[in-house]
Amino acid sequence: MTPEQNDSVGIVVPQTLHFDQPLTLACGRALPKHDIVYETYGSLNADKSNGILICHALSGHHHAAGIHHADDRKPGWWDSCIGPGKPIDTNVFFVLSINNIGGCNGSTGPTAINPDTGKPWGPDFPPLRCRDWVESQYLMMQHFGISQWAAIIGGSLGGMQAMRWALEYPDAMRHCIVIASAMKLSAQNIAFNEIARRAITSDPNFFEGRYLEHNTLPRQGLALARMVGHITYLSEDGMKQKFGRELKTGNLNLGSGSDSDVEFEVESYLRYQGEAFSGSFDANTYLLMTKALDYYDLAREYNDDPVQAFSHAKCAFMVISFTTDWRFAPARSREIVDALVAANKSVSYAQIEADHGHDAFLIPIPRYMDVFHAYMKRLKQELGHAL
Amino acid sequence: MRFDLTLIQPWINEGARVLDLGCGDGTLLATLAEQKNVSGIGLEIDPANITLALAKGVNVIEHDLNVGLGNFRDNSFDMVVMTLALQTLRFPHLVIDEMLRVGRECIVTFPNFGHWRSRWYLGQRGKMPVSKFLPYTWYDTPNIHFCTVKDFEALCTDKNIRILNSAVIGADNNQNAIADRFPNLLGVTAVYHISK
Q1: What percent of chain A has pLDDT over 70?
Q2: A355 in active site
Q3: Active site residue A156
Q4: Residues 35-64, chain A, touching B (beta carbon < 8 A)
Q5: b/e for A319-358, b at 16 or more Cβ within 10 A?
Q6: What is the average pLDDT across A96-115?
Q7: For residue A177, what are the β-bridge partners?
Q8: DSSP line for A231-270
Q9: Which helix (H) or strand (E) holds A5?
Q10: Mean pLDDT of chain A
């Protein structure tokens, strides 16, 4: 990837916005002040009607597209979809991507300093709900002087934020694009999250969440949590294709001595993913994010009736799922679609054939891109763009 | 536009909520939205058609009609349309029941196997008819449940389905007075407007 590559947004510089007014949270507490780290791609038009908000998933952040310096080999997490001529076309749209509060990539979260104590917030950081992210994103919207987003787009937990927006601020968006998401987690989803959390909290270096004060990190636990998570992001077929039963080291021949040097490719892969993650992500953020996921229930305050919930929305919806996603299976997306149809909303739905499991939403699968492009065409038309 | 799609438009009210089963590339719904301010949703299974419909600004839901319409509530649409898809279904009679449950009125169009060419083809050659309009051989055809105008009306009688309007399209791809008199013999495509 080079900045000259014409479908990349090129080199981007993350910005920080400081908010001094308290942000009241769903739990009843308030963040006295907070920082939001963000990136933008493309430019805002004169009437500020071409804004798109990107909501990130569990371990995501503000760096969704482009690169940070000329030698940067790793583009943003959704570079496949954001850029000139890509589905989220930065020649047409102004794209805002932020790191949510509670995160660990620069926005105020558990690793930030608690102004009351002068120490890192750690486990004392207020518990968050999805709607808190919507509220803080709304402050960002006001900062940019945008009164209505052309679209709010998110995959997985990002899709949940986009749907929450549609209910909380129905006039503030024209389109809601929900990819590989769900209206609430299943018992199985919660179970996997709980294993991940237990892995973290039972690490001897966790110190009840005050590991930073002890100048240590629960890396082992966080790595395990990520390994479990990773299994749920992939599909059985995808893993079979990627790793099969290939050995990284050792051999399985009888009489070859010890088993201890045998390592399957998949073991090596998971270990690598876990270790990389544990060095870059904060354990308290992981706990906080998985809790917000578990407690998310779109229709809870609408008599548990998703049709009643969606009756408040005014935007048009595009829902996309992937066949081998078993974390947020196509059936979960179809529930969203059915509720939207029953609520008499404008909705389209595509179920993309893909081997990549939940992770498919990050991958430029040709049919996924076709569908995404085709839907985005109507957003461009609304802006009066010649096609 | 295909003539059966033109023919049915007068039966669809201004501003109606329309569900189009097997909406193809979305031509009908796009036209209805433009000319009659209809709010429509199309159901389609073919990926290429889904993309085409989306690009036209038509709302389309990827859906296999053979799983039925269990996802949709009773009387949730003013009109449920199914054009030239009846013969591809595993259980056409059950889908018609479902259409009448979901929509207050329905429109069904299908190729009429009672047309004289089909009869002649089978009578003369003793082989399953193959035509420009229905170019498949018996073993690879998606059309697994052919019927005639008479068959369809018998089904309506059995199920107490009301026929509000009907028409046939003749070989000249138009409506004509002679075909209207002998629909089962001269109709290539049959067009029915039905309700409970």
Answers
A1: 98
A2: no
A3: yes
A4: none
A5: bbbbbbbbbbbbebbbbbbbbbbbbebbbbbbbbebbbbb
A6: 97
A7: A153, A318
A8: HHHS-HHHHHHHTTT-EEES---TTSS-STT-EEHHHHHH
A9: none
A10: 95
Tell me whether residues A367 and B47 touch, CB distance under 8 A: yes
Q: What is the pLDDT of residues A35-81, one digit of tens each?
A: 999 999 999 999 999 999 999 999 999 999 999 999 999 999 999 99
Stretches where chain B sits below pLDDT 50 are none
Rounded to a whole number, what is the distance in Å from the CA of A335 to chain B's nearest CA?
A: 9
> Which burial class, exposed, middle or buried, applies to A136 when counting CB atoms under 10 A from its CB (0-12, 13-18, 19+)?
buried
- Residues A299 and A308: their CA atoms lie apart, in Å, by 8
List of residues 6+ apart from A105 with CB closer than 8 A: A37, A61, A62, A63, A99
Banded pLDDT at A1 (limits 50, 70, 90): very low
**For the segment A264-291, what is each residue's pLDDT rounded down to a tens digit?**
999 999 999 999 999 999 999 999 999 9
In terms of Cα–Cα distance, which of B172, B178, B159, B171 is closest to B192? B159
How many helices and strands, by DSSP H and E, does chain A display?
Answer: 10, 14
Of A337, A341, A371, the CB nearest to B54: A371
Confidence tier at A3 by pLDDT (50, 70, 90): very low
Tell me the chain A residues in contact with residue B57 when contact means C-beta distances shorter than 8 Å: 377-378, 381
| pLDDT tens by residue, A313-359 | 999 999 999 999 999 999 999 999 999 999 999 999 999 999 999 99
Look at residue A5 in the predicted model and tell me its pLDDT: 61
B17 interfacial to chain A (CB closer than 8 Å): yes
Residue of A349, A328, A329, A325 whose CA lies nearest to A337? A349
- Render pLDDT for A196-233 as a digit per residue (tens, 0 to 9): 999 999 999 999 999 999 999 999 999 999 999 999 99
What is the C-alpha separation between B57 and B60, in angstroms, rounded?
9
CB A328 within 8 A of CB A362: no
- Please check whether residue A299 is in contact with residue A309, taking contact to mean a CB–CB distance below 8 angstroms: yes
Q: Is the pLDDT of residue A361 over 60?
A: yes
Position B122, amino acid: L
- Tell me the ipTM for this assembly: 0.94
Q: Are residues B165 and B106 in contact, defined by beta-carbon separation less than 8 angstroms?
A: no
Q: Which helix (H) or strand (E) covers residue A96, if one does? A: strand A94-98
Angle between helices A283-295 and A219-233 (to 10 degrees): 40
**Cross-strand bridge partners of residue A351:** A321
DSSP string, A103-122: -SSSSSSTTSBPTTTSSB-G
Q: How far is CA A114 from the centre of its chain?
A: 25
Size of interface A-B (CB pairs under 8 A): 53
A374 touches chain B (CB under 8 A): yes
